[in-house]
Amino acid sequence: MRYARGLLALAFGALLAGCVTSQVEQVRQGTTGISDGEAVVILARRHHSGHEAESSFTECISESLTSGAAPLDVRAEQAFVDTLFPWFEPRTAPLSADTLPKLLGEPAIAEKLAGTGVRYIVWVDGMTEVSEGAGSMTCAVGPGGGGCFGFTWWDKDSQYEASVWDLETYEDVGRISAAAQGTSYMPAVIVPIPLIARTQATACKGLADQLKDFLVVQQ
Amino acid sequence: MRRHSSRLIILATIASLLCGCITTQVPVEGEFPAPVMRRLPYAVGVHYPEALKTFTHEEKVPSGRTWVVSLGEVHVSFFDQLFTGMFAKLIRIEELPAAGSRNRQVDGIIEPLIEDFQFATPGQTQSKFYEVWIRYRMSLYSPAGKLIESWPLSAYGKSRSQFAQARDSINDATVVAMRDAAALLATKFKAESEVPGWSATQEEKAGPVDYTEPGIDADEQQTQQQRAAGDKQPAAL
User: Fold this and answer.
1) Distance between CA A208 and CA A176 in Å, rounded?
2) C-alpha distance from residue A160 to each of A121, A210, A215 (Å)
3) What are the residues whose beta carbons fall under 8 Å from the beta carbon of B26, sequence distance 6 or more?
4) How far is A102 from chain B (nearest CA, A)?
5) Looking at the DSSP assignment, which residues form a beta bridge with residue A21?
6) Around B178, how many Cα atoms within 13 Å sit in the side-chain half-sphere?
């Protein structure tokens, strides 16, 4: 009986979610490995005028890294940026790992950074875009009640890239990209039933799992 | 009677919604960390003009909503925090030195001013962000009140639009723009080991300046305020 209910809930959940396809790629450029007492910080690139990675996405990655098997020590993004104010603001944040020696050549900045215990900075760039959908839906309300009738759908595309900088060697040690595409549907016969494609969550899980392997496994 | 009043309130609300004449007040609030940098060895006087302390931007956007963004108060605390981290000593002065006089407590004077404030809503730019631009004018004076340098400083900030939280988004975008201004100022002063026109005055000071205790000189500030409130004499000595 309990299994039947579980299967029913699973089937209902699958029905409510739109289909998503995802792809994760990794490029390693240097050796990694993380010891006790060393931390990671996930920072969103914010210097583009038109877009920036959603804070919900960076928070999702941070939560994924701190949970599960072999959790990592992850520093909060805003606390890190405030500690090193104003050198990680959109205008002043280093754009390449080559500029780290110059930035950390300032003793006051190097001292503050050492105090955070951060070994790796993970820069996340990208966004989730919702394309214009199609279909139509009509809703009406009358004295006897209301309801909707129709069918609409729309596409969602999540594209993110994480660049990992090692603060010990001042190197860009690798990149991981995650892409997820999906179509969301909303059929309505009196009551609209949204079948949402969770592309951002899928991209987050794919990127976070790969990132954890990338940082923990010594190569 | 109570029923009548509630009806009036509902009618007034509906009427204001229909004519689109909603006014949203945004008294900008934010906390700013002290900048991480080597303090420049100057005792600096900061002068906040009345135009800065009371700066308010009012704008009616095409949707009919009127925004009133108050920036003065938050800027005083923002610049206090910023300059305290940038210079060895900060002294707030109420007025610039009058002609022929000199403030012997400081090596130089800095005066920030907001020249322009603009914002754009997602509806105006067809984006997902509220955007803010602030144009400042920063002026450096000698202890005698002579203008040494004056330059415009343009800062930009954006904040993601959130459902039914337009006020918070404008506030957040403004705070990001102010942090951008701090980044610009810190970068300018980090690159300079000395400020032209300030170093030359150090030998002319009446007494030594304590560089070991950074921060706003509370006694001096009180003295200046008393002078300003009293006989309206210039704050400079």
Assistant:
1) 9
2) 16, 13, 18
3) B67, B68, B69, B70, B167, B170, B171, B174
4) 12
5) A181
6) 27
The string over B63-73, giving b where at least 16 C-beta atoms fall within 10 Å of a residue's C-beta and e elsewhere, is eebebebbbbe
**At how many degrees (to 10) do helices B72-86 and B166-191 cross?**
30
**Structural domains of chain A, ranges and CATH numbers in brackets:** 27-128+157-179+198-216 (3.40.50)
Q: Taking CA atoms, what residue in B is nearest to A90?
A: B180
In tens digits, chain A (219 residues) has pLDDT values of 555 665 555 555 555 566 889 999 999 999 999 998 999 999 999 877 777 889 999 999 999 999 988 899 999 999 999 999 999 999 999 999 999 999 999 899 999 999 999 999 999 999 999 887 899 999 999 888 899 999 999 999 999 999 999 999 999 999 999 999 999 999 999 999 999 999 999 999 999 999 999 998 765
Residue (of B57, B83, B92) closest to B71 by Cα position = B57
CA distance B134 to B116: 6
A105 contact B CB<8A: no
Structural domains in chain B? 21-229 (3.40.50.10610)
Question: Which of B37, B128, B158 lies closest to A108 in CB terms?
Answer: B37
Structure tokens at B136: 């400042």
Phi, psi of A91 (to 5 degrees): -80, -30
B128 interaction partners in chain A (CB closer than 8 Å): 51
Report the C-alpha gap between A189 and A193 in whole angstroms. Answer: 8
Residue with tokens 């820069």: A123
Q: DSSP 3-state assignment of A215?
A: helix
Amino acid at B106: V
> What is the ipTM for the molecules in this complex?
0.82
Q: What is the dihedral of CA A71, A73, A74, A80, to 10 degrees?
A: 180
